[in-house]
Amino acid sequence: MSDIRAILTDIEGTTSSIDFVKDVLFPYARTHLPAYVETHADTPEVQHWLHEAAKEAGFVEASRTEIIDLLVRWIDEDRKSTALKALQGMIWREGYESGAYVSHMYPEVAARLRAWHEQGLALYVYSSGSVPAQKLLFGYSENGDLTPLFSGYFDTQTGHKREVDSYRRIAEAIGLPPAQVLFLSDIREELDAARTAGMRTTQLVRPPQPLSENGHPAVADFDAIAP
Ligand SMILES: CSCCC(=O)C(=O)COP(=O)(O)O
Ligand SMILES: [Mg+2]
């Protein structure tokens, strides 16, 4: 993998546990979303994302309560809605800044990211969490502020994670040939799309899942990756 110049990493299931997202972030957003929307509904940003959520749901007309109920339902479904993820990011900021939680990082991730950064590799994030939510997650990690290690962030405003063109757009934005970018994720369909776009891929199969390859090089942790 010596021609790798950049690493693009997923978050949930890759740098951080699915349990942290499902058991900490999502419940926090679900609890605080109704009050947050009610108290911030007059801000342009919240108005924009409420409108986008209603459009995504096909609502012609909907009350604020109906949209709030829709968003809460989407949280329960883990729907990768760009509008929901944007609103979640705003709510999660309050949780991080209040000290309600810090983000989970698997034990080897921070040290490995630092090593890759010192090695001269450019590090990027691609997650269905919004870019602000990504910056918060790496800014308030249990290993401190990791954001200085990253050169850029991508979310589903670039494109959805199972779409090939999303990875073509990311490689173009990074300014590298796709073959010089290594994409790390836990989800096979995301890795398939990245490889079709020409990227190198490695699947994170975190214990207790048994390590097995299904079309991509598979590792149990970042220490087993040699870019
Ligand atoms: C950026 S923290 C919240 C992550 C999130 O909402 C999510 O769905 C992450 O999914 P992914 O595997 O795309 O990182
Ligand atoms: Mg993931």
TrEMBL record:
It catalyses: 5-methylsulfanyl-2,3-dioxopentyl phosphate + H2O = 1,2-dihydroxy-5-(methylsulfanyl)pent-1-en-3-one + phosphate. Binds 1 Mg(2+) ion per subunit. CDD domains: HAD_EP. Its EC number is 3.1.3.77. Its cofactor is Mg(2+). Keywords: Amino-acid biosynthesis, Hydrolase, Magnesium, Metal-binding, Methionine biosynthesis. Bifunctional enzyme that catalyzes the enolization of 2,3-diketo-5-methylthiopentyl-1-phosphate (DK-MTP-1-P) into the intermediate 2-hydroxy-3-keto-5-methylthiopentenyl-1-phosphate (HK-MTPenyl-1-P), which is then dephosphorylated to form the acireductone 1,2-dihydroxy-3-keto-5-methylthiopentene (DHK-MTPene). Belongs to the HAD-like hydrolase superfamily. MasA/MtnC family. Monomer. This is Enolase-phosphatase E1. The gene is mtnC.
